[in-house]
Design a protein that fits this description.
Distance between the termini: 40 Å
Largest sheet: none
């Protein structure tokens, strides 16, 4: 595998890991949360540098429904990251404590909640929209050259089960409250076992990956059939 492809995959995996760590603030403490957030920002920049061809192709070619959807999700991810960057710097007590910022704490707290929860969902959708590419990279690393119907069906069923559990997590963890800022304070259960927390959040991530991946597949099939009729 080419070094650039390996680097892309490594950055994406690290970003996913850091995203999960950031959502589990209560387990790692404020100082670690800030440093992980700073690392996430650096990886986000690296991700864009490694995918610079995407920026260059923005004004080239035709825009179909999937391309428009992907662009909207990517722009919203960028917006969520900017909100996190700004609010994280304003509220920082460790990494950016040297900056002379003395106001804007209330706005920063609201933006941080919105950026965190919307960012988690949007980044999961982003992964789902690029899932074919990620699977392709993994298959190259594993040297899997042939497709398998049994493997595809098994993967779909596993994804469906994970997505179903993810729906339950979305409801039970009251995600809508934070997505629409019905509360300015996030309930954190410090006594919850880490393993259960991360199983829930992996399932939640799996839900949005599943929706984006198979939803985009369905859209492509519909587009293909429409073209054949024309």
């Amino acid at each position: 595998m080419k070094p650039k492809i390996t680097a892309k995959l490594a950055v994406d995996i690290l970003m996913t890991v850091l995203l999960l760590l950031l959502m589990g603030y209560q387990f790692w403490g404020e100082a670690a949360h800030e440093w992980i957030g700073a690392g996430m920002l650096l990886l986000f920049i690296a991700h864009h540098i490694l995918n610079w061809h995407w920026h260059k192709s923005l004004f080239k070619g035709k825009y179909n429904a999937i391309r428009i959807l992907t662009l909207c999700v990517d722009l919203l991810v960028l917006l969520a990251m900017l909100a996190q960057m700004y609010s994280g710097i304003v509220m920082s007590r460790y990494v950016f404590s040297f900056l002379p910022i003395e106001s804007g704490m209330s706005l920063a707290r609201r933006l941080h909640i919105l950026g965190a929860y919307w960012g988690f969902i949007l980044m999961s959708l982003h992964l789902g929209l690029h899932w074919n590419m990620i699977l392709g990279m993994i298959q190259k690393m594993a040297r899997i050259k042939t497709s398998s119907k049994i493997r595809s069906i098994s993967t779909f069923i596993a994804g469906l089960v994970i997505a179903g559990y993810g729906v339950w997590v979305f409801i039970s963890r009251d995600f809508l409250t934070y997505l629409f800022l019905k509360s300015e304070f996030v309930f954190l259960d410090y006594s919850e076992p880490k393993i259960l927390f991360y199983i829930d959040y992996l399932a939640l991530m799996g839900l949005f990956i599943f929706v984006a991946h198979y939803g985009s597949k369905l859209c492509r099939q519909i587009e293909r059939k429409r073209r054949q009729k024309v």
